[in-house]
Amino acid sequence: MSARHEARRALANSAVSIVLLIAIALLANVIATRHLFSRFDLTEDRENTLAPGTLATLQSLPDRARVRVFVTKDLPPEAAPYLQPPLDVLDRIERSSQGRVQVEYLDPAESTVAEEAKKLGITPISMQIMRRDRAERVPISFGVDIRCGEKNTRTIPFLDTRNPEYELARALKAVSDPAPRVVGFLTGEPPEPPKFEGFEMPMPPDRVFQRFRESLRDRFQLVDVADTKQGNPVPDEVQVLVVRPKGLDERQLFEIDQFLMRGGRLLVMQDRHAYTPSGSHDAVATGMDPLLEKWGLQIPDDVLVVDMASRAKVQVPQKGPRGERMMVIADYAYFPALTRQTGGFSDKHPVTKSLQQLVLGWASPIDVLPARPSSLEIENLLSSSEFAFRTKEVDQIAPDMRGVDARVMAKATSKSYARERLAVSLVGKFPSLFAGKPVPPATESRPSNAPPPKVPDDGRAVRAESAETRVIVVADTDLAQNMQWNEESAIFLGNAIDWLALDQDLISIRSRGQTRWLRDLDVDAMKAKGLGGEKVPETLEEAAALKEKYDKVGLEARDVADAQRSRIRAANLVGPAVALLGIAGWRWWRRRRERERLARPA
Hints:
The chain is an alpha+beta fold.
């Protein structure tokens, strides 16, 4: 056999081997994609892996769920990165459901599909993309219709691309719950106006928790509890009661107390001072103090918490150099900006362990009394930074850029800066405030057309102690009101309601997609310079001296923090290259040593 023939045969064998290897690799990839569907998730919180709550929701589906995704298929390449993460989540849900979820993709560009999408309320939105260095807006549809059985349906008009897993898990959970949990609101708000087809009545301005309600409506049945003064107990079907104490009388306290005694759970949001955008101030007589003190808590009525290190920014009107009116951005100490870096959240509690940031408004401190029930476990949920204190300046709170910090310091009641408690959870058996006492009389007459209560007052048994139950107390209501409602408020309060409703599947998912805040190097440098724990000034002169010290040392601390950030950036840039060169040098040395060993005579 000639050498040329041998060479051709070897070349053919090599070509066949290469083709077979490519075919095997493709087949293995298809098998792994369809059946193994596992991937390495190296993110800190495993955000590219379905959360346990999502998997539990899939397992609880009573029937096969049909998920129809109305998504625009003919999209420009620049828009694809926005839709790919939620499409990946849909794919993971279908694969992990073990046949319980069937996903179908429909293109609204087709006339029949477009008509069906319109009936469901799924319409395109205008999304801005960058194409050829120019901003353009393109219409995109991305709605989801979920059906489980004949009656249980949920529609998502446009799937949230920031946290699609939560939106899908929430909708799947809604269609899987045959009887949704009931959340009551005892908040003293006017009733929701009636709805008429083709006409929407304006919402009363005093219905301040409406956006809070809307965030819960697709998972819970909501009721307003407004007749406790007439001697009506909290309805039996209510499992969680949201209370905003405002002028509560003894009968209302009794109904709240007995709701808790029968195993109900409470979310208490309490303000001691109410402010309006115009700056007017009203002290709030809550009437809740006897009940809080029975639980071992106290919320002072004459002070507010101010935070000098971690505070939100607000717009402040100011005169410009020519006398014109202009808006400037300023730090506002009455708005504590809680972050994970400043220790604002409990790392262990399910409600707060995944939170990254939250802003409160004109919050009060919460004190835990020495004489508190031994049957209750109290845990801090929200806290200010270490640079906070209490002030009696509760009237002149306008952020005027000049004297607000001096005023709050001049009326400080704290001796030194310290962390302040702003929200707590209580778990255990609660003692009744009315144990051994008669039922208080109703303070309002019942309407003539209202049915009487099932059990008259003289036949009601006053429970002395509850079974184990849960309560959350937040010394602020502004974070839940319409004007300050935001994504962070929705996450915290949504987690709180889920925890109180004994339904924690969604808690691990809701906080995904939040901005992850890095370590605060400025605060670390300020602590290293000896700032913190100083005595709170009592006079304007002391306040000015302390401010001068903070300004001076703060600049030095900022320089130290900037230098540290520069070193970290340099390490991130140079480190990988140095590591790669080191590995390459080590491999070159090993190969050289191997060649030298083989070249030595035997």
